[in-house]
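for the recovery benchmark. tokens below, seq after
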């Protein structure tokens, strides 16, 4: 199938998502969640189930994995213990089971070479995001990093993207968000930014082709190739 390459002009900055876009973190989520579940006396979940729950931050992830076993009221009873256990287990293994997707370094370098400023906006807590960016050697590409708990609202709310636009002194139409999920696309649409999706990440088990965006690119390098200032 030949897919038409999107072309976006007037782009001065790119906001890049982390989980499912730059780093394949599902195996880290899988290990940390199941260690937490073991602490609570719960059976392990498979990686596909856990991956479908990723995308709307840690608190939502906790509630989803507890909802497999508990009714809503019981989820809240176990929430604090689960979150503390998960946090400790995730910090202990952060990045150990993860891998970079193809052409991430090449794509970020190409975006920089085009003169674009780069920000990373993730729904991952900032205490997880920064060590992971360091470990994968990606931190140096970014002028700004916002985690899911850095600001009062996270994606799909437009606030993190609008904050980046303001920090960079750019109007949203000059900024493109690149991500793997509907959260990235909805945040970008609400902010008035452009948006490109990658098809290989985590979109709650749904097809990325059903998401309203300006196009789908197979890698960050392909994204760089279809953007111009
Ligand atoms: O940790 C999450 O919930 C998702 O993080 P992301 O925004 O980097 O995809
Ligand atoms: Mg993502």
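predicted aa per position
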């Amino acid at each position: 199938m030949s897919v038409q390459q999107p072309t976006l002009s007037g782009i001065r900055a790119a906001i890049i998502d982390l989980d499912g876009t730059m780093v394949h973190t599902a195996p880290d989520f899988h290990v940390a969640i199941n260690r937490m579940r073991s602490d609570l006396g719960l059976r392990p979940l498979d990686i596909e189930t856990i991956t479908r729950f990723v995308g709307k931050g840690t608190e939502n992830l906790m509630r989803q994995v507890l909802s497999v076993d508990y009714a809503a009221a019981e989820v809240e009873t176990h929430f604090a213990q689960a979150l503390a256990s998960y946090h400790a287990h995730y910090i202990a293994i952060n990045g150990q089971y993860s891998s970079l997707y193809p052409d991430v370094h090449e794509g970020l370098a190409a975006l920089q070479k085009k003169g674009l400023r780069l920000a990373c906006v993730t729904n991952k807590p900032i205490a997880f995001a920064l060590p992971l960016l360091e470990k994968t050697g990606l931190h140096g590409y970014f002028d700004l990093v916002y985690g899911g708990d850095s600001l009062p609202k996270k994606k799909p709310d437009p606030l993190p993207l609008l904050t980046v636009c303001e920090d960079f002194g750019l109007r949203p139409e000059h900024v493109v968000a690149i991500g793997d999920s509907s959260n990235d696309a909805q945040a970008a649409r609400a902010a008035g930014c452009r948006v490109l999706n990658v098809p290989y990440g985590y979109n709650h088990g749904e097809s990325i082709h059903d998401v309203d965006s300006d196009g789908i690119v197979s890698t960050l390098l392909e994204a760089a190739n279809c953007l111009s200032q």
